[in-house]
Structures are given as C-alpha cells and as structure tokens.
C-alpha cells in the first residue's frame, strides 16, 4: 500500500536515527513501518520513499512490575507486550486490533482506543514516556517513568496519535493496570431507536461501572459472535461490558438487569470471560476491517459526536445507507460505520455543522484517499499543527502526504 | 515607577476594558508581584480583569502591538511561581470570568469559564450524583483554568487521573489573539493540542473556557487510616498495596511532624505518637468494598500497622480529607516559613526516597515534615525555616535541591503536579537532555514565536542559564 | 501616642509572618468573591498592610479603599490553614491609620456621620430609641410601609437613608428589663446577661425571649446595671480609646465571682467581649482577660449546659445563617443548629454559602452600602434556594440587614433570632409564617 523504494530494518535506535538523518539530507520521504495492520488509515502517499521497519527494535527495556510501568521498544507487538504483562497479572486496558502483528509504536502513533475506552480511556492516557527520532534524525525523549509528571511540555501527548508525522517513535514507557479477575458482556436487543436513547441515557446514571457501552447494528452483526441472530423486530444490540473481581462483576450484572428491568428491557445474553472473547475481538476489529469483511467500494468511517447524539447519528447514517453496518462506542460518542465511500462527503458536512467530525478510518485500496477525503476540512488549530510539523520535520519527509504536510515552512 | 512605555498601553487597556477592569498604580500592583511562591518577586506593569474571551483576545492583541508580555493568573496559588511576572508585563486575571455555563449530565459534561474555583463546580453539582474529579489540595480557592494550566493532581489522582483526564475541550486565546476551540467532541483529524495545552503553564495560550468531564459519584466509600510506628513500614505497606493490584481511590501519607500541625489546626484526634498515618480510600460498587478493605488492612497489618480505623461517618471522612488537604498550610503553625517540594519517584522507590529525605534533612540541619500522594510515588517534603535566618535559608535551599536530585537519581521527576514555573527551571536540564529540551522549545515556538506568553517559565533559556536566585 | 513612622508599624510582626501566602483564604472572602481582585482579598490585604507597616509602600487612597472595603467578617480566619489572626491585623491597623491621619491632620478626624451617628448615637440604647421616634411615628400612622415600598427613603440623604430603612416594622418589644429573673425549676446555673445598645433598642423582645429561655433552662439571670455598649462599633470604626472606656465600664459592671457566665445573645457583641483581653496592653488587661474568659454566647452556653427540650411544635422549614462574628470569630457553628434541631416539627435546611457575610458587618452596610447590597442580594438568593419559611441569625446586624431585604423584596420569610424561636416553642406560640413556602 505504501510506495516503498526500499525498506531497511535498523537494529537499534541510533542506526534508525542515522537512516532518518541521511534521508533528510536527501529530502527522501520516510515511511515508518510497524505491523502494517493499519495502513489503510490516513491518506495514501504517492511519492516513493524509504520504508523504515521497526522490526529490529522489539526489546523489553524495563519492567518494574511493582511500579505498574513498562518500557519497551516500539517494534514489540501488542501480543508480546500482553504476554509480559500477563505473567505479572497486569494488562494494558486498551484494545488494539490484530495484536499478533500490531506494534506498540504503531498503536501509539495512531492513538489507539477501542470499546473499553469508556472506563479506561485510550492509549493517550497510558503513554508516560517515549523516545523518538524527529525529521532531522535527532533522537529525543519525553516524559519519564513515573505515573505523574508535570515537568515541561507533554510531548508524549503530542506524538501519540500524530501518525508518524512529527517523529518516528522508537521506545515507549506505559502505565499499566492490574488484570481484572473477570470480565463479562451483557447484551440486549433494542426494539427501536427511542428505546436505544432511553437505555443509553439511563446508563449515564447506572450504579455499575461499565467498561464498554456498545451499540451494534447492520448486516455485520447479523450473526454476531456468541450472540446469535438479532431477534426479529429488533434494530440493534446494546452490549455493556464489565470487568472486576468475580463478586463485583456478578453484582454489576445483577444490578444492570434490575436497572434495565425497570424500563422493560431484558438481557438476552450474558457472556462471561472466554465466552465473551470473540465478541470483544469483533468489537475491537470493526474499525479496521480486513478486505474480506467490508463490501466493495465501502470504507470504515469514524464519526465523533457527543454521547447524547449517538442514536441520532446512527439514524442519520442509516437514512443515507440503509444497510450500513454500525458499531458505536456509545458512551464516548464514537460511531463507526461501514459505508460506501461516496457517502462520506455528505455525512461529513452533516456532522461538522453540529460540532462533530468524520474521518475515514480505513479505506481499501482502489478508493480515493487524499488528505481532504480522509481527514476532511482542517480542524481547529490547523496553523499551529502546521507550525509544529515545520519545526519537527522541516523537510517534510516523515509520512509525506499522509497527514500533515510541511508546505510553506520557513 | 511606571515605565513610560506602558503608559500608552495602560491608556489603551482602560479604553477597551473600562477603568474598573485595569490596575496600573504601583500600590495596587504590588500584591501581584508573587503567588504562593514568594522567594522571587516582580511587580507587573498592569493587571487587567477581562470579562469575556473577546476581551482576553483584545488584551493579547494590544500587548502584541506594544510588545508587552502576558502572565495569565487565576487564584494565584501556584507553589512554583507560575504567576510571577518575570520582567513585568500585563497580568491577565481570569477571576471575573467565573460563570458555570452549562451542566449537561446526559453528556457527563460541564462547561465553565476559566475563573471558576474548582470546588465551586463540585458544589454546583451537589445532589446530581456527579462530581469533578480533580481535587488538588488548593481546590477551595484554585480555579479550573489554573488546574488546566498546571494539569493539577490531588489525592484522588491515583484512581481517577489528573486534570487532563477530565478535560474534554478548551477555548483558548493564542499568542496572536486568535481564539482556538478544541473539543468537546474529539477530532481525530489532527494533533492532540488539547493534551499539549493542559499543563503548559500558560506559556502556549490563555485558557478561557473549559469543557470538563463529570464523574459519577461512587456508590460507596471506605476511608481508612492506618497508624504506623515507622515511616518505613507505612511506605512499604503502600508500595505493597499497589503491587498487589489493588487500586484505591487515594492513598496518602502524613508523617509525625505534619500530624502535629494538622492536629493543632483541626483537632481530628490523630495519635501524636504515630510516626506515620496512611489515609487509604477505596470506592466503587459496595459489592467489592469489603474485599478491598480486607486486603488493604491485611497488608497494613503485615507491615506492623498499630491500628487500621475506618471513618465512622461522612462527616468524619470529610474532616479527615480536610486535614489532609489543609496539611500544607497548617505547617505555618510549626514555623514562620516553609518550602514545599513536589518530587515524584517510581512507586517502589517510595521507602527509599523518604529515608533519603530524612537523611538529607539531618545532614543540613533542616527540619523536614512529609505529606505524600504516596500511591502515585509523589512526595511533598516540607522544609521548615525562618526567613529571617539567612544561614538556615541557605541550608533549606541546598537540602531542597538535594531532595530533588535524589528524585531524579531514583528514576523520578522534580514535579508531579506543581509545575516547573520559575522555581524548578534549573532542574530541567538535569532531567532532560539538550535534544529533549530543544523539542520542547520547538513546541513553544510553534504556538508563540515571539515568546510573550508567560515568559521565563517552564523552559530554561537556550544557553541553559535562568533568572534564578 | 504614636511616634511610629508607618501606620501598623507597632503591630506584632509575627502576626504578619503567620501568613504563608498560600492563597487558600481568597475564595472565602466575600469582597474577593465579588470583585476578583487580590487587593480586595485577605492575602492581598495582609500583604498591603505589611508593605505599609514596613514602609515599603506609602498609605494612599487606593490602599485605603481596599482596606476599607474589608468587612472584618473573618471568614478568612476560618479558611486559613496557617492560623493567621486576620482580625488582630486589620483592627489595630485601622486604628493606626486613623491615628496617623488625625496627627497629620490630613483629613478631618471623623466626618459628621461617624462623629454624630456612630459615636454619639449608637452606643446608647436610649438615644437610638429616641432617634427612631420619627420613624416609629411614620409606622404608627401606617405611612412607613408604603414609603418603603415606593423607595421614598432613598430621598433621605446617604447613609442616614440606609439607616432608616434598616428599622424594621413595629413589634411589641416588651417592658424594660428587670435586674433579676429567677430560674424555673431546679437551678442549674447563675448567669449575668449582657444587654448592649442596638440590641436593647431594637431587639428588646429578643432579649426577653433569651431571658425566658434561660429561665426555662434553670438559670438565675442577673442583669447588672452600669453596663453599656460593647465598644465594637467604636473599635471597628477606628476609635480605640472610646472602645476601651466602654469595655472598662462593662468589666466594672459585672461581678464575676457570683456568676457562672456572662451571657451575650448577639454575635458581634460577643466577639468583642471575648476579645477584651487582647486589645489594650495596660494595667487593666488582666481584669479584661478574666472578664472575657467568662463570656459565653447564648447558643454555646445552652448547648454546653444541655438544653431542656422544648415541647411546642413549630411546623415550619427554617434555615440558619451563620453570623460572621459568631461563626468565624467565635467558632460557634454547631451549637445553634443542635439547639434548633430540638424544636419539635421544625425542619432545618442547610443554607448554601452560609459562611459568606450578609453585608451587614457592624456598620459596614452604612459605610459601604454598594458592596453590602451586593452581598445581601447574594445572601437572599441563597436563602430562597432553601425553600425556608423562617431564616434565623444570631446577630442584630444580620437580622436588620436580612430583614430589610426581605421586606423590600417582599419575600415570604420570617426573620428571627434562634432564641425567639426557642422561646416560642417553650411557650407553645407560633411564628407568623407565610402559608406558601418560598420558592425552592
């Protein structure tokens, strides 16, 4: 998917920095490569350039488990990270699709965040330190190894989600959490959209602590893993995830049933631990569907609105495309929709007007993927972002054409 | 004396904002020469009280035209000199922008102007079932704008995170006077400017409006106080609780010295012979609390806790938290002056750093008492002195420096929540390599190329020297 | 007596050093909360006073303005973790300023209003009563009510006009107080009652209520002759000598040996009496200190004694406003609430921002009417939020200030002293509450 003229795999960060420095001298574009699981995100670059693989940087640097922090090189996969953490009864509570291939650096660069962001936040909330190489080939570090740090600017935040446009991330220090004893998903079929909003509004005041609040609609969920077919007459599933000790999860499930019972909604399925895994996986992967899972000419759009506008948003999407598949992280106002690429522009202007936004999270090869189509009109603070790009990557070699462009740098 | 150059600026400010919103006389400027940090002082050239974002923008544009620097200020409770008008300039007070604009429970969000005191929002939320989670000890006075500028923490940071984790959106005036709105709906099409602005100490923009996340009140609490006969036992217990995978809402430490001060001020009934008290709060669904409480107590007992007591009722809990939050101010009862430090170390290094603090105090003959957001590894050693004793002042400054150096050596940082301000400028180059600082400098230049927003703070000047005592 | 160069130079410097400049007091200060300027907050004022005392700053009109705007409500003392005695800074400082200006004859020592109204009129109950005669006549003729509603008192010049509007409607104040009243039932204590000036002139009915409550609680009550004004008005207006003379007259009037306590029922007077021992350093200081130690606020006293529960039901919703000089200066907060909670049928609701001054603050409402009005409006809004039918305060100034606002806004509220209500419960009388409660 990337126009790579060659690919190198530096063995360490210094070699990597050297490589970037040389590319900068020649004005050669550099495309950092992690696991390649999210290449369909962002604009498609056209200029050939250097593929910079992080596969050589996959070491565990430091894991003081009792501090609940871990430092790893950026090329480590999320599965390997999870293994290290699991050995100490810990986890990174951020869902990243295809963890066998996806790398820590790639996840940080794309600012990953899945269904469990309702309780746990996104990866942005876990990066407490990092090292990176800027567009001049200079290695720098930010943050540290403590969970609370107010020294200087938070460059970790700046780089998380920057899509490799400011620097190549080579090492990351993460805050981690104890692994919950138990997890569960409870799902309820939704008869109509007004009921959906009613239940979602009710969940704002629930006494339980949901980890995820998910709304599932459309053909992709026709036979949702472990849930089975959606009962006739229902428009969607509402699934709520819980984590905690056995006692806590049991109590929360009972409590949810009671709260829903008052409104007439019934829990049709309760999935515990392993049983829930396939559904968790599907919820996580929906944003980055493989080509086999998305209709021809469709893309995955990520729409952001206020949580109170989720149901309205879902209805609007369905009005434009009645057979769209939709997953909403409803508690956070994230609506993911598999829709025809042609519908993007129309939907986008509709959400912009109400303070929302739409980006194309995943577009298959063959569709138009220029900066304007993928990202839409420039967001607030665009001039500052451009100024940042000019200062961190004055030659504009990093991920050229994918996100920020270094046009007009002095 | 008023610098002649500021006279036309003052005239212009008065014309735009109204005379009642501009101070220019030396006798009225003097109280703005410092904040909660009093070691350095400098009088501003003017103080203005804008009442709207448009007025803030006008002030910024005027200052740009006259080349004046700008120092945003809320309640002025910074302990690092964040509001010190280094080299004069115009202090922009946000205290007349203090409306709570919206409380929107469906979206778990409130919209407030920057000058709203932190606690006022929580008061306005009373009975709603929600609260604003960041609870810095200054929360009765400090403003939400100020909390955003310093990314303020507090005891409940341990479970609920710092201010950044509770900010959904910002309206801010940039160095050129333009107004930027980020959020409240996150836009993935761009860099995380919100994350960068929070904690930037007023050096990148002036925050005028904040969309904050509201947190549901936990169903129930258990607030425990464990009484220890040695500081070492207490810190080891705290370290073990974290390592055991228990996540209390807050885990605080007070040593014997601070207990004495707090007891004098608030008469809680703490045992004065205790060497350390850990205040540990667990919260959440009631179903899980007995279990958490039992595990916490077991670990405390394993580390020889003499007693583990539960707050009897909400009133006692409230008083307990008041004692903890007012502890620093209460130290004023122990000595005429004090200097509070804000170091942070990896949590397992907590026993080590407190031992070292005691040694450093002994070595320099400085009395040091301690409070700590211990669960986060965040220590607040308080060094006591009499400002009239010059020799003692010198020893205190030296001991303070040594404590922070020890934090760095232990893999930590020199500030967890107070910020760098002017106080810790010298430490930036010890904490960060030149390339790291350069990256930060680039960030600042991207926002404020002329360097007029809160100059002389957060980053040491390029040559490494700073305007320090 | 002063040959000191700077006003305030004589103040114990340690009191300034108590302030560690943390700023936690600011949000507790009514004027800072209203204005947002640190010059109008406690930390700023302490800083200004220190600058002047140290001679780093000359006392100019601007600084005076900020210091004059201080209510001396001492809410900052409650908020201060470091234990700054703010009252002991601002009060002597104000005295020093007055003295310095008198010596330099920069301004007239006191303007006519202070001279005549504050010093000649206020300390004397009989003169106050005499001065109120015209107003009382207007009331008897039924004209006062509509003059107030039409705002005609605004035509009365300045501060005098404000004073006139403070005078409440006619109530039966009861006869002159006797010298002695015996305990009912078994005698539990023997106390002496402090009468005061404004309180005696305008709240004699509350005095009677207080005395009856004391009797009900088994107290012999002496009302010594020769006592007078507590001196707070003089002291806070900058006349230390005048205040001292009144204090010494009071100290002489009470025979401490034969009583368990000196009872005072208004917070402002009580705070002054309790601080007699602090203000003047001369031969009589020990005697003043002994006197001060015996002074007890009525709420505090009854709470400690253990209230004989009243039995008359009062089916009403009430809220209690903490008078600054009772709450902040004397730290008496829980006692009145505990007493009121024992009235059968009474529902007590917490008042939001109860700790913020109502703007009365002694004679502040006469000297700084604009700020006083802002604070009063804020107070009434908060009172209305509670939905209470009765608002209670244990201080004359607050009762007058809140009472006027209630009348002018025609709020459906009855303004009472806690002793008024307790007394009603003992007598099985009912307050004249509006049938529809105030809006919530």
Could you please describe the fold and organization of this structure?
The complex is a heterotrimer of chains A (410), B (469) and C (440). Chain A is of the alpha+beta class and 410 residues long. Chain A has twelve helices and 20 strands. In chain A, the strands form five sheets. An eight-stranded antiparallel β-sheet of chain A has the order 16-11-15-12-18-19-17-20, with helices on both faces. Chain A has a five-stranded antiparallel β-sheet with strand order 4-5-9-7-8, sandwiched between helices. The mean pLDDT of chain A is 93. In chain B, 35% of the residues lie in helices and 21% in strands. Chain B starts with 5 loop residues before the first helix and ends in a 22-residue tail after the last helix. Chain C has 440 residues and is of the alpha/beta class. Chain C has four domains: 92 residues, Alpha-helical ferredoxin (Fumarate Reductase Iron-sulfur Protein, Chain B, domain 2, Orthogonal Bundle), CATH 1.10.1060; 54 residues, no CATH class; 124 residues, Rossmann fold (3-Layer(aba) Sandwich), CATH 3.40.50; 119 residues, 3-Layer(aba) Sandwich (Rossmann fold). Helices cover 50% and strands 8% of the residues of chain C. Chain C has 25 helices and nine strands. In chain C, strands 1-3-2-4-5 form a five-stranded mixed β-sheet. A four-stranded parallel β-sheet of chain C has the order 7-6-8-9, with helices on both faces. In chain C, helix 24 links the parallel strand 8 and strand 9. Chain C is globular and about 60 Å long. The relative contact order of chain C is 0.11. Chains in contact: A-B, B-C. Chains A and B meet through strand 8, helix 5, strand 10, helix 7 and helix 12 of A and strand 9, helix 7, helix 8, helix 10 and helix 15 of B.
């Amino acid at each position: 998917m990337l126009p790579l003229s060659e690919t190198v795999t530096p063995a360490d960060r210094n070699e990597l920095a050297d490589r970037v420095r040389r590319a900068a001298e020649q004005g050669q574009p550099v495309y950092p490569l992690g696991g390649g699981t999210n290449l369909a995100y962002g604009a498609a670059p056209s200029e050939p350039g250097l593929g910079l693989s992080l596969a050589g940087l996959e070491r565990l640097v430091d894991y003081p488990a009792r501090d609940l922090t871990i430092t790893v090189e950026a090329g480590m996969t999320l599965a390997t990270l999870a293994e290290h953490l699991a050995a100490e009864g810990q986890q990174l509570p951020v869902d990243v699709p295809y963890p066998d291939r996806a790398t820590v650096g790639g996840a940080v660069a794309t600012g990953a965040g899945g269904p469990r962001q309702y309780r746990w936040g996104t990866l942005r909330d876990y990066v407490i330190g990092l090292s990176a190489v800027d567009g001049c080939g200079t290695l720098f570090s930010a943050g540290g190894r403590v969970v609370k740090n107010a020294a200087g600017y938070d460059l970790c935040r700046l780089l998380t989600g920057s899509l490799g446009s400011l620097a190549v991330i080579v090492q990351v220090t993460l805050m981690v959490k104890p692994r919950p004893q138990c997890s569960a998903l409870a799902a309820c079929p939704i008869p109509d959209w007004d009921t959906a909003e009613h239940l979602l509004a009710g969940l704002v005041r629930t006494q339980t602590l949901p980890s995820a609040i998910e709304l599932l609609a459309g053909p992709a969920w026709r036979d949702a893993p472990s849930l089975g077919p959606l009962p006739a007459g229902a428009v969607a599933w509402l699934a709520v995830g819980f984590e905690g000790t056995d006692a806590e999860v049991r109590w929360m499930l009972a409590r949810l049933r009671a709260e829903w019972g008052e409104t007439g909604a019934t829990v049709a399925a309760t999935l515990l631990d392993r049983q829930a895994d396939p559904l968790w996986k599907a919820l996580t992967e929906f944003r980055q569907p493989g080509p086999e899972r998305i209709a021809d000419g469709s893309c995955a759009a990520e729409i952001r609105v206020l949580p109170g506008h989720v149901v309205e948003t879902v209805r609007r999407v369905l009005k434009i495309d009645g057979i769209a598949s939709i997953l909403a992280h409803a508690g956070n106002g994230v609506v993911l929709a598999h829709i025809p690429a042609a519908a993007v522009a129309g939907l986008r202007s509709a959400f912009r007007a109400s303070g929302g936004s739409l980006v194309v999270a995943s577009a298959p090869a063959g569709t138009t993927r220029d900066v304007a189509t993928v990202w839409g009109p420039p967001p607030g603070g665009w001039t500052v972002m451009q100024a940042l790009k000019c200062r961190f990557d004055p030659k504009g070699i990093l991920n050229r054409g994918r996100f920020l462009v270094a046009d007009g740098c002095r | 004396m008023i610098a002649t150059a500021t006279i036309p600026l003052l005239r212009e400010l008065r014309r735009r904002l109204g005379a009642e919103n501009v101070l220019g006389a030396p006798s009225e400027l003097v109280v703005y020469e410092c904040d909660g940090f009093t070691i350095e002082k400098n009088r501003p050239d003017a103080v203005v009280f804008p009442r709207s974002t448009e007025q803030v923008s006008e002030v910024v544009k005027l200052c740009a035209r006259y080349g004046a620097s700008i120092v945003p200020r809320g309640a002025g409770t910074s302990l690092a000199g964040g509001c010190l008008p280094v080299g004069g300039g115009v202090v922009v007070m946000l205290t007349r922008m203090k409306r709570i604009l919206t409380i929107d429970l469906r979206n778990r969000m409130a919209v407030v102007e920057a000058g709203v005191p932190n606690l006022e929002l929580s008061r306005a939320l009373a009975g709603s079932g929600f609260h604003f989670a960041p609870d810095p000890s200054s929360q009765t006075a400090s403003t939400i704008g100020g909390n955003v500028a310093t990314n303020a923490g507090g005891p409940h940071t341990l479970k609920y995170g710092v201010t950044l984790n509770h900010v959904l959106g910002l309206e801010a005036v940039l160095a050129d006077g333009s107004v930027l709105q980020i959020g409240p709906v996150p836009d993935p099409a761009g860099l995380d400017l919100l994350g960068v602005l929070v904690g930037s100490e007023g050096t990148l923009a002036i925050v005028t409006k904040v969309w904050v996340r509201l947190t549901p009140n936990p169903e129930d609490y258990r607030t425990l106080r464990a009484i220890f006969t040695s500081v070492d036992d207490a810190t080891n217990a705290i370290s073990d609780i974290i390592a055991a995978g228990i996540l209390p809402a807050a885990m605080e430490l007070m040593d014997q010295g601070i207990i004495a001060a707090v007891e004098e001020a608030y008469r809680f009934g703490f045992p004065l012979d205790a060497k350390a008290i850990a205040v540990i709060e667990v919260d959440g669904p009631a179903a899980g609390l007995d279990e958490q409480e039992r595990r916490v107590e077991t670990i405390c007992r394993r580390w020889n806790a003499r007693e583990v007591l539960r707050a009897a009722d909400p009133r006692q809990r409230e008083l307990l938290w008041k004692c903890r939050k007012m502890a620093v101010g209460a130290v004023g009862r122990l000595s005429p002056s004090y200097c509070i430090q804000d170091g942070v170390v990896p949590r397992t290094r907590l026993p080590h750093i407190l031992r070292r603090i005691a040694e450093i105090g002994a070595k320099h003959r400085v009395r040091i008492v301690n409070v700590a957001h211990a669960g986060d590894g965040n220590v607040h050693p308080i060094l006591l002195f009499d400002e009239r004793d010059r020799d003692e002042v010198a020893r205190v400054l030296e001991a303070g420096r040594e404590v922070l150096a020890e934090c760095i050596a232990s893999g930590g940082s020199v500030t967890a929540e107070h910020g760098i301000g002017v106080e810790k400028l010298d430490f930036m180059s010890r904490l960060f390599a030149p390339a790291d600082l350069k990256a930060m400098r680039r960030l600042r230049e991207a926002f404020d190329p002329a360097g007029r927003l809160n100059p002389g703070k957060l980053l040491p000047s390029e040559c490494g020297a700073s305007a320090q005592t | 007596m002063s040959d000191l160069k700077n006003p305030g130079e004589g103040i114990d410097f340690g009191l300034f050093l108590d302030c560690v400049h943390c700023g936690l007091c600011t949000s507790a200060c009514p004027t800072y909360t209203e204005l947002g300027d640190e010059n109008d907050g406690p930390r700023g004022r302490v800083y200004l006073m220190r600058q002047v005392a140290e001679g780093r700053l000359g006392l100019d009109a601007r600084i005076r303005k900020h210091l004059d705007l201080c209510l001396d409500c001492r809410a900052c003392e409650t908020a201060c973790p470091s234990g700054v005695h703010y009252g002991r800074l601002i009060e002597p400082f104000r005295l020093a300023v007055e003295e310095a200006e008198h010596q330099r004859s920069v301004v007239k020592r006191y303007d006519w209003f202070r001279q005549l109204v504050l010093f000649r009129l206020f300390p004397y109950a009989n003169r106050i009563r005499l001065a109120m005669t015209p107003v009382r006549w207007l009331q008897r003729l039924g004209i006062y009510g509509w003059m107030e509603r039409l705002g005609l008192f605004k035509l009365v010049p300045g501060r005098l006009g404000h004073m006139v509007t403070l005078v409440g409607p006619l109530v039966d104040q009861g006869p002159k107080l006797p010298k002695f009243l015996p305990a009912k039932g078994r005698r539990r204590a023997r106390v002496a009652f402090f009468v005061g000036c404004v309180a005696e002139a305008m709240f004699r009915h509350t005095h009677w209520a207080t005395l009856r409550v004391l009797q009900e609680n088994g107290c012999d009550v002496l009302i010594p002759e020769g006592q007078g004004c507590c001196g707070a008005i003089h002291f806070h207006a900058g006349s230390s000598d005048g205040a001292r003379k009144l204090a010494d007259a009071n100290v002489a009037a009470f025979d401490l040996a034969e009583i368990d306590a000196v009872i005072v029922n208004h917070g402002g007077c009580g705070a002054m009496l309790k601080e007699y021992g602090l203000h003047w350093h001369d031969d009589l200081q020990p005697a003043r200190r002994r006197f001060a130690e015996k002074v007890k606020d009525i709420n505090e006293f009854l709470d400690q004694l253990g209230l004989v529960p009243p039995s008359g039901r009062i089916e009403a919703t009430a809220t209690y406003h903490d008078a600054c000089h009772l709450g902040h200066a004397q730290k008496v907060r829980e006692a009145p609430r505990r007493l009121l909670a024992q009235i059968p049928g009474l529902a007590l609701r917490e008042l939001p921002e109860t700790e913020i001054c109502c703007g009365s603050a002694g004679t502040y409402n006469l000297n700084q009417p604009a700020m006083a009005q802002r604070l009063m409006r804020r107070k009434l809004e908060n009172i209305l939020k509670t939905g209470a039918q009765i608002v209670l305060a244990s201080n004359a100034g607050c009762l007058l200030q809140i009472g006027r606002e209630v009348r002018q806004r025609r709020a459906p509220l009855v303004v009472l002293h806690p002793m008024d209500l307790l007394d009603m419960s003992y007598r099985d009388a009912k307050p004249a509450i509006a049938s529809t409660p105030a809006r919530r």
